[in-house]
Amino acid sequence: MKRTVILTLPLCLALSTLAACGNGDDGDAESGGGDTVTVVTHDSFLVSDDVLARFTEETGYTVEVLRAGDAGVVVNQAVLSKDNPQGDVLFGVDNTLLSRALDAGIFVPHPAEGLDQVPEAYHLDAGEDRVTPVDTGDICVNYDRAYFAERDLEPPRTFEELADPAYRDLLVVENAATSSPGLGFLLGTVAAYGEDGWRDYWERLADNGVEVVDGWEQAYNERFSGAGDGDRPLVVSYASSPPAGVVYGGEERPEEAPTGVSTGTCFRQIEFAGLLDGAANPEGGKAFLDFLLSAAFQEDLPLQMFVNPVREGVELPEEFTRYGETIDEPLTMDPEAIAEGRERWIDEWTSLVVR
Question: Which of 152, 164, 258, 305 is 20 to 30 Å from the Cα of 77, by its Cα?
Answer without folding.
Answer: 305
